[in-house]
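Box 3.1 — From sequence to structure: DNA-binding transcriptional regulator
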Amino acid sequence: MTSTTTRVLRLLSLLQDRGYTGPELAQRLGVTDRTLRQDIARLRELGYPVHGTRGPIGGYRLGQGATMPPLLLDDDEAIAVAVAVGLAEDGSTGIADIDHSVKRALAKLERILPKRLQRTVHALREATAVGPATIGSREPDAPVPAETLATIAAAIRAARVLELDQRQVEPYRLVSWQRRWYLVGYDLDEHSWRAFPVARVHRVAPDSRRFAARTPPDSDLVAFVLREVASAGWKVHARVTVLAPAETVIARINPAVGVVEPVDEHSCLLLTGADAMETIAIYLSMLMMDFRIDGPPELVDHIRALGRRYRNAVAHL
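Predicted structure (token representation):
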């Protein structure tokens, strides 16, 4: 690759981030103003819409054009796009044309990734399962650094023990659900299977020890995570008796909403949770079934408040 080509690619990379003045670009590239203008012209000939404005606050920026020119991605951006596109492919959008385009985009990106980045992307994709989509969630996002996910995925692939904060864990599967990440692992300190919320982990480091695979707690580790989240993974929890058969309730709710236990042929116990008591109250109103609150008292207060609002909303009719 010639020095001119390298410089033009560097210029394109800079313009994709934000706008710059001419002197700023010339200084960062180590060229004269004349050479900068020549490189800008080369980018325009290649189809990149580089807009320039004059004046003391003028400069250059990359705008929208009539065609789609190639993009430059750094390592972190390439990994993020490849993993995100791969997860979209695994989850399927349900739109035929888009699903086909997702597959083609992923194939193109993987063909040009360097081997070292391909290994990271493949490790993440192989280690990750996608949970079911749910509608109307009000739970906040819990973003996780890409480096953390890459470290966990590499440990899963190598069957290497991980240190999660102060815990020793055998990692088995990453699960992406509701814009959150969970690690299914065997806790060597508590000798139990757990679904660890990755966003709550402050330190992740691979151990030198390797481990032999254990029999997983469930053939479907996504289902295992959903049950763990429903029973223990939320900030607040509730016990509700639903006056309907267990199979009717199970068919009505998403598995992540709660765990259903039969009481008799006409009723069942729903163990549910969320990050806020108000969310549980809304979930219950969406059941469209009669129910009785067994606890906690705070949920009773929220249900009473909702009841008053509903009554007031129709009082004038």
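Summary of the box: The mean pLDDT is 81.
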